[in-house]
Amino acid sequence: MRVAALSTSFLALLASAAALGRPEIKGSKFFLDGEQFFFKGIAYQPEKGDPNPAQADPLADAVGCKRDVEVFKGLGINSIRVYQTDPAQNHDECMKLLSDAGIYVVLDLASSQKAINRADPQWDTDLYNYYLSKVDAFAGYDNVAAFLVGNEVANSVATVNSAEYVKAAARDVKAYIKQKKLSIPIGYASNDEPEIRDDLREYFDCGSDD
Fold first, then answer.
1. H helix intervals, the chain
2. Distance CA 106, CA 89 (A)
């Protein structure tokens, strides 16, 4: 029943999304309407006052969104990055407020409780299905600019082996999005550790396009 509900929601969102054009990648740059697109944004994850900050979902908080989108307009930003969301919640109102303001969302598929563990990395069906539930919940919104499959998972020499699990996640999520006939970039927020950052960049960019 849950899968059917997600699929129905996904199709409904696709039918309603038409306002904003989605930036696309050409070479190593983003473009929108034929011109290079530059992200000018902030990380957005308010938790103050939430009874369980680890599960806070700012895009399900319509009251908070109405308040904060007005601030975003004043800042002149065109994008936000959101780390934590709940795919079971309704995000229609917040996402429309952001879309109407011309603000794109870069969305993490992991959460504080469901993510690849750098100390004991695994990419299993439970985490795979959780990531796909996020895709189904958000892919229909016209202002989703990209999905991120991890956040600084490999952050030291001792944890670089976790990168292969992140790369597997990227491969499988890309395949799912392709299966849905969508075009949404998949990314990874890498760590800026001098010893490994160049090698990680080359590792994530090597091999097949998949």
1. 2-16, 62-75, 92-100, 125-138, 163-179, 197-204
2. 18
Q: Is 7 exposed, middle or buried (0-12, 13-18, 19+ CB in 10 A)?
A: exposed
**Residue-wise pLDDT tens digits, 4-41:** 444 444 444 444 444 689 999 998 899 999 999 999 99
Pair 109, 131: CB distance under 8 Å? yes
C-alpha gyration radius of the chain: 17
H or E segment at 81? strand 79-82
Give the list of residues 6+ apart from residue 129 with CB closer than 8 angstroms, or none: none
Pairing verdict, β 24-26 and 41-43: unpaired
Question: What's the pTM?
Answer: 0.86
Q: How many angstroms separate the CA atoms of 49 and 30, rounded?
A: 36
Residue 59: phi and psi, rounded to 5, are -85, 0
